[in-house]
């Protein structure tokens, strides 16, 4: 028989941080079972100041007697006690939860409520190493994405006994001659956790005696790995290309966004969405609660959680239109002439982040010369189409949004084409403020024999002479993803927005090589990638092919 000090040290050592005056009063959840009763006694032994919270789940006839027993124990020990009750079974049925899930959620809600009412910042529960092993095994059988088990700390909640075994707790209770209440439902193997505890784990222990320690260690390793990978995933900016990223990081990017939106999901959903992001394809799925969401594909695919549900058949025209215009849904090959040039209707709708189903429901007006009107929100008009449709629409509106980006990138591409004709690396750039171009430049590195004469640096200098040193209200359009030098200059100029075309796999500072904006630089820079990327990339490819041919 071990001495009392050796017997109690593993239980008391993790609790000494909660002793007065190191810690103020705290809430401890006490069900009346062995683990929680032992935690209460141990807290008192180290000089802590616990306030007991007990929730009656109303699942058993004897649960009222359990609450009375806990209250009597608290009176005997001189500890404040808060009792509560909740109809767990009814809540589970109403919300579609399992009984175990409902009990857990309501129990933690009650503990948090008691802490808030008492003005306390710490809540302790008596989860043990055995609970940890059961949880990790349960997560494994369910196919969870991360087998991190029970977290030792989360917000105000602490679980100091995750390294303590039930056999140690039983020995301590015997030493104290402290009785406890047995919950008869804990023997019911209809509940998964009880089945694992009473049937599965004992069988595994016959072959693997150290299984609890192994599963606990696995949980710790998984939690540590997940923390590092989640921190890396947190550096993913919206413009960073998803293609080629590690699946482990993309799963965590998706998980972070779903959790931030308070959506329920399973590991299979993470796999599906992460795969769609990596491949750059559009994919739609429905989460467990019936919430529909999509990955919008393309060179820079994004997980779309915010898109409102479309009208059943899209927006219809509420005006008269010429007799040769036809109201219909889109067809393959449809094109529309906009201020920035003629574009495929499918590309315009992709820029607006409409799903395939929304695109198919969208109404449009087509004429022999092409599509004249799209029933988007707000409507998209072809160049000059308003005047043909009749009065009441006013003059053509200034460019905005995706159409403005397409148009101004076209002007930057024209500068790049002119640079290529001079034998220069074809990169063009311009700065737009208030809808007007205030500066434009092309790359001149080869011409001047100066590798700092990039288009971006030239155009930023020009713009500074027009509006002053800071360009917070301006947008820089450049045909190639900036290098670290040019991105740094944009940040120093406090540029408001940067729009680029082709990715720069040799020197790109926005994801082509690395994403420097994953770090905080003191100035938030909005980035839109991939505008007219194919044209910009083809221009660069042709230019470098010419340089190589000339060198032969």
Strand order of the largest sheet: 3-2-1-4-6-5
Please state the average pLDDT score.
89
Structural class of the helices, strands and pairings?
alpha/beta
- Rounded to an integer in angstroms, the radius of gyration calculated over CA atoms is 32 Å
Q: Would you count the extended β strands for me?
A: 20
Shape: elongated
Helix content: 40-55%
Unreliable parts? 308-313
Largest β sheet strand count, sense and barrel closure: 6 strands, mixed
Our estimate of the beta-strand percent is 15-25%
Whole-Å distance between the termini?
Answer: 89 Å
The total count of helices amounts to 19
Write the layout of secondary structure elements.
Elements: H1 4-12, E1 26-29, H2 34-45, E2 50-56, H3 63-77, E3 81-85, H4 88-95, H5 99-118, E4 123-124, H6 129-142, E5 153-154, E6 157-158, H7 166-176, H8 192-207, H9 211-233, H10 247-260, H11 267-279, E7 283-286, E8 292-296, E9 302-304, E10 326-329, E11 335-338, E12 341-344, H12 345-351, H13 356-361, E13 363-367, E14 370-374, E15 380-381, H14 385-389, H15 401-421, E16 428-433, E17 436-442, H16 445-448, H17 455-467, E18 474-480, H18 484-492, E19 497-502, E20 526-528, H19 533-551
Parallel strand pairs: 1-2, 1-4, 2-3, 4-6, 18-19, 19-20
Antiparallel strand pairs: 5-6, 7-8, 8-9, 10-13, 11-12, 13-14, 14-15, 16-17, 16-18
Helix pairs in contact: 1-7, 4-5, 6-8, 6-9, 9-10, 10-11, 15-19
């Amino acid at each position: 028989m071990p001495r009392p000090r050796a017997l109690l040290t593993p239980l008391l050592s993790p609790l000494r941080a909660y002793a007065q005056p190191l810690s103020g009063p705290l809430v401890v959840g006490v069900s009346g079972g062995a683990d929680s009763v032992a935690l209460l006694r141990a807290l008192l032994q180290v000089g802590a100041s616990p306030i007991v919270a007990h929730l009656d789940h109303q699942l058993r006839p004897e649960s009222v007697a359990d609450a009375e027993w806990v209250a009597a124990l608290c009176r005997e020990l001189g500890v404040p006690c808060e009792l509560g009750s909740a109809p767990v079974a009814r809540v589970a049925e109403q919300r579609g939860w399992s009984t175990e899930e409902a009990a857990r959620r309501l129990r933690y809600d009650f503990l948090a409520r008691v802490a808030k009412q008492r003005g306390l910042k710490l809540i302790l529960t008596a989860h043990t190493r055995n609970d940890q092993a059961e949880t990790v095994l349960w997560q494994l059988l369910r196919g969870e994405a991360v087998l991190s088990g029970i977290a030792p700390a989360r917000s105000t909640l602490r679980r100091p006994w995750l390294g303590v075994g039930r056999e140690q707790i039983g020995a301590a209770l015997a030493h104290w001659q402290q009785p406890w209440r047995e919950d008869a439902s804990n023997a019911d193997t209809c509940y998964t956790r009880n089945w694992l505890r009473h049937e599965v784990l004992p069988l595994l222990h016959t072959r693997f005696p150290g299984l609890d320690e192994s599963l606990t260690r696995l949980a710790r390793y998984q939690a540590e790995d997940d923390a590092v990978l989640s921190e890396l995933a947190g550096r993913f900016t919206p413009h960073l290309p998803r293609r080629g990223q590690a699946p482990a990081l993309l799963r965590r990017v998706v998980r972070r966004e779903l959790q931030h939106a308070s959506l329920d999901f399973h590991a299979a959903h993470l796999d599906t969405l992460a795969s769609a992001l990596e491949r750059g394809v559009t994919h739609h799925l429905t989460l467990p609660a019936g919430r529909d969401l999509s990955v919008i594909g393309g060179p820079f695919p994004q997980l779309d959680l915010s898109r409102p549900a479309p009208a059943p058949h899209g927006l219809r025209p509420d005006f008269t239109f010429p007799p040769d215009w036809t109201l219909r849904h889109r067809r393959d090959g449809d094109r529309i002439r906009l201020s920035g040039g003629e574009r495929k209707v499918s590309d315009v709708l992709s820029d607006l982040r409409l799903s395939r189903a929304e695109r198919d429901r969208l109404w449009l007006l087509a004429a022999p010369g092409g599509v004249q009107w799209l029933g988007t929100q707000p409507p998209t008009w072809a160049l000059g189409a308003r005047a043909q449709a009749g009065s009441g629409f006013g003059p053509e509106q200034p460019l905005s949004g995706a159409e403005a980006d397409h148009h101004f990138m076209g002007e930057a591409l024209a500068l790049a084409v002119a640079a290529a004709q001079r034998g220069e690396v074809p990169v063009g750039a311009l700065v737009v403020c208030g809808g007007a171009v205030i500066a434009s430049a092309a790359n001149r590195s080869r011409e001047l024999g100066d590798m700092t004469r990039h288009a971006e640096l030239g155009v930023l200098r020009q713009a500074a002479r027009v509006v002053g040193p800071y360009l917070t209200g301006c947008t820089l359009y450049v045909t190639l993803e900036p290098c670290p030098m040019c991105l740094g200059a944009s940040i120093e100029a406090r540029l408001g927005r940067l729009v680029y075309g082709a990715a720069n796999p040799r020197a790109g500072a926005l994801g082509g090589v690395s994403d420097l904006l994953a770090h905080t630089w003191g100035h938030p820079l909005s980035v839109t990638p991939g505008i007219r990327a194919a044209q910009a990339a083809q221009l660069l490819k042709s230019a470098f092919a010419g340089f190589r041919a000339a060198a032969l």
